[in-house]
């Protein structure tokens, strides 16, 4: 018997590829072509209930209902920014856990930032997602459904997906790969690999594995510091993998995929925003096919990290530009709506606990 992904001890129907769904449908005694119909209901028409699958027999719907889990995230709270219309969604999973996702509207299309885990165990000092550790990994269906629900609720077509919400995607590698395959599938939302970004704090062996898959997705590395000593004070993962090892893995990724790497660098006042840091970063990245995304750190109340001054941010950017490194300052989206990673969920849980 084939082992299918499970949710709540039942087959997790939305995490199945079309091939797996065909085998599954045959295993419960129905015709193979029903799988394509069901796949379309789940991944193109985005149903949340088998009752909506009108071309499937009542008998099959009954079997599915009894035998499977159909992931349909429950929106608990939606906050829309008055500044830029960025919308932040708080969703409840089948087991009561909460996750958050963000819809950002750009000129070139709509981008959704999804979570890959409930919480995170990486412990980055500036990040709200990790304050209570990692509760569990998300199944592929639970990553997909963040996009499906946002598309259904907002009525907006999603063209870009970034795995940059709560969680470390490389710490939930197999499910993230399956998620990318489903998201990219022609019979699903068919989001092109070039429009998908995976962001990691730098789990080196997984970067090599991902490179060998030869996807055309964008790899983003959360660097945040130009030397190991400083990086260790900001990100515990730096004790495990050095910047040198990360750079070698990135070179390998570029050689396999021909894709430009994105480096994220959150600027923290007096910590990593100095001229010396900018010079070290230039030395590190010169000549590499890459792009640097400067993010003014979004302060969280549990930590004392402050955002860099405008002047320091501008100087940092200028220094990189002068040395011909592609650099942009990330536009701060949704500052008025708990914009930083994991903030909405954390604030919600903390306040509910007090009540
Ligand atoms: N674990 C992955 C993806 C999630 S975090 C990673 O580390 O890349 C997405 C990005 O937001 C990372 O670059 C992370 O370092 C950054 N980030 C998290 N909290 C932040 C904050 N308060 N201010 C600015 N950037 C933050």
Protein described:
There is one protein chain. The protein is an alpha/beta fold. It has 2 domains: 6-69, DNA polymerase, domain 1; 74-354, Aldolase class I (TIM Barrel), CATH 3.20.20. 35% of the residues lie in helices and 21% in strands. The protein is built from 11 helices and 15 strands. It has helices spanning 18-27, 33-43, 58-67, 140-154, 173-184, 204-212, 228-234, 243-257, 275-285, 310-322, 343-354; strands at residues 6-7, 10-12, 68-69, 74-80, 87-92, 98-106, 109-113, 117-119, 134-137, 158-163, 196-200, 218-222, 261-267, 290-296, 326-329. The strands form 3 sheets. A 10-stranded mixed sheet has the order 4-5-6-7-10-11-12-13-14-15. Helix 9 packs parallel to helix 10 (310-322). The mean pLDDT is 94. Bound molecules: S-adenosyl-L-homocysteine.
Task: Explain briefly what this protein structure is.
This protein folds into 2 domains: 6-69, Orthogonal Bundle (DNA polymerase, domain 1), CATH 1.10.150.530; 74-354, Aldolase class I (TIM Barrel, Alpha-Beta Barrel), CATH 3.20.20. The protein has helices spanning 18-27, 33-43, 58-67, 140-154, 173-184, 204-212, 228-234, 243-257, 275-285, 310-322, 343-354; strands spanning 6-7, 10-12, 68-69, 74-80, 87-92, 98-106, 109-113, 117-119, 134-137, 158-163, 196-200, 218-222, 261-267, 290-296, 326-329.
């Amino acid at each position: 018997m084939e082992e299918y992904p499970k949710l709540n001890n039942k087959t997790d129907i939305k995490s199945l590829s079309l091939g797996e769904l065909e085998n599954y449908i045959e295993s419960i005694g129905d015709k193979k072509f029903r799988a394509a119909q069901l796949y379309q209901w789940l991944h193109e028409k985005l149903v949340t209930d088998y009752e909506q699958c009108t071309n499937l027999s009542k008998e099959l719907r009954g079997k599915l209902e009894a035998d499977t889990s159909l992931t349909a995230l429950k929106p608990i709270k939606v906050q829309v920014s008055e500044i830029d219309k960025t919308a932040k969604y708080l969703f409840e999973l089948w087991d009561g856990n909460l996750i958050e996702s963000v819809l950002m509207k750009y000129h070139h299309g709509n981008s959704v930032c999804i979570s890959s885990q409930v919480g995170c165990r990486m412990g980055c000092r500036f990040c709200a997602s990790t304050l209570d550790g990692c509760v569990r990994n998300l199944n592929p269906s639970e990553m997909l459904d963040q996009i499906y629900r946002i598309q259904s609720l907002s009525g907006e077509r999603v063209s870009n997906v970034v795995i940059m919400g709560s969680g470390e995607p490389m710490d939930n590698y197999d499910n993230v790969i399956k998620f990318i395959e489903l998201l990219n599938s022609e019979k699903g939302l068919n989001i092109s690999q070039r429009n998908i970004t995976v962001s990691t704090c730098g789990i080196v062996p997984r970067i090599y594995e991902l490179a060998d898959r030869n996807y055309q997705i964008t790899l983003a590395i959360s660097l945040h510091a130009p030397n190991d000593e400083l990086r260790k004070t900001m990100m515990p993962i730096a004790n495990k993998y050095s910047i040198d090892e990360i750079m070698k893995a990135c070179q390998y990724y570029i050689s396999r995929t021909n894709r430009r790497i994105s480096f994220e660098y959150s600027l923290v006042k007096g910590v990593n925003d100095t001229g010396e840091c900018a010079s070290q970063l230039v030395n590190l990245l010169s000549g590499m096919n890459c792009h640097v995304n400067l993010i003014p750190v979004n302060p969280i109340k549990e930590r004392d990290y402050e955002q860099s001054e405008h002047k320091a941010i501008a100087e940092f950017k200028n220094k990189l530009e002068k040395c011909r490194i592609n650099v942009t300052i990330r536009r701060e989206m949704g500052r008025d709506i708990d914009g930083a990673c994991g903030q909405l969920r954390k604030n919600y849980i903390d306040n509910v606990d007090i009540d």
